[in-house]
Structure formats: structure tokens, C-alpha cells
Specification:
Layout lengths: L1 H18 L3 H13 L8 H11 L2 H112 L8
Length: 176
């Protein structure tokens, strides 16, 4: 931000010198900047000499008190700022510590979950192995049952055909 202000001042000075406008104004502004206690260009020696030349003893004492009060106020503001930033730093440290603890416990829980999942997979494989013989037997029984149902149908077919023949004649064959 200071470099931005400096570059703006430099551009103005270049333009003023080119057009010949405001040369006296620029010099006066530079003088004011040197005498402004809040500016970076502040000159302590020139400021003190100016105060001694322009003001009486009572004014100097009042200026001293004002400066002392300003120093106390600024010191208090700086202490408050440091305290607030320190509190923010402590809060951030506490939050980071809590997050680390939660991540550590989360790592432990993930390891436990992984172990439990391995145990479940092991039990599922064991159960699948134990039931595979029964599954094969059930498949054979299902196939055998289907085979017997077909044989039973074939055995009962002639009797059904005879009963339909006697009831409806030759038209009954189509219903079987």
C-alpha cells in the first residue's frame, strides 16, 4: 500500500514537472509530510526545532502531555492487539490439538474396523466352505426332484389321456 502511494506521488510529480504545474505545491506537501508525526518521512529534528521556534513553554508542556497520552493510548492499543492475537493463536493451537487427537482416534478406529472386516471375511469364507457341500447336495436334490416330477408326469400321462378320450372324444387330446 505504501509503494502504491509512492508510485502515485511519483507519477503526479512527473506530470507536474512536465506541465510546470504545482511545483510550489509539491514542495509544501513534502514539507508537511516531513512534519507529520504519522508519516514515514517524519523528521524528529525538524519537528522539534519547529515546535521550539513556534510555541511557548505552556504550549510545549501541553504538547508533551498530549504526546505522552498518545503514547500511552497507542501502547494500550498495541497491548490489546497483541493480547487478541495471542488469544487467537492459543485458540487455533487448541483446535489443531483437538483435531490431531480426533485424527489419531480415527486412525485407531479405522484399524479396528479393518481388523473386524478381515474377521468377517474370514468367517464368511469358512461358512461358505462349510455350506458348499450342502449347496451341492441341494442342487442335486433339486435336479432329482425335477427329474422325478417329469417321470411322474409321464407315468400319469396315459391315464389322463384315457380319461379325456372317454369324456370328450378325440378333441380332448389338445387339452392335455
Amino acid at each position: 500500500m505504501a509503494s502504491e502511494a509512492t508510485s502515485v506521488s511519483r507519477v503526479r510529480a512527473l506530470l507536474s514537472s512536465y506541465y510546470g504545474v504545482g511545483a510550489a505545491e509539491t514542495e509544501t506537501k513534502r514539507e508537511v509530510d516531513v512534519m507529520d508525526i504519522n508519516k514515514q518521512e517524519f523528521d524528529v529534528t525538524r519537528y522539534t526545532q519547529s515546535l521550539l521556534a513556534e510555541k511557548g513553554v505552556d504550549d510545549l508542556v501541553a504538547e508533551g502531555r498530549k504526546t505522552k497520552n498518545d503514547i500511552k493510548r497507542l501502547d494500550s492499543e498495541m497491548q490489546t492487539l497483541v493480547y487478541e492475537n495471542y488469544n487467537k493463536f492459543i485458540s487455533a493451537s487448541d483446535i489443531i490439538r483437538q483435531m490431531k487427537l480426533k485424527v489419531d482416534s480415527l486412525d485407531n478406529e479405522m484399524q479396528l474396523l479393518s481388523q473386524n472386516m478381515d474377521g468377517v471375511m474370514t468367517h464368511a469364507d469358512e461358512l461358505s466352505d462349510k455350506l458348499s457341500d450342502n449347496r451341492k447336495l441341494m442342487q442335486r436334490l433339486g435336479t432329482t426332484t425335477e427329474f422325478f416330477e417329469k417321470i411322474q408326469f409321464l407315468i400319469l400321462l396315459p391315464a389322463k389321456m384315457r380319461s379325456h378320450l372317454t369324456v370328450s372324444g378325440e378333441a380332448g387330446y389338445a387339452e392335455v
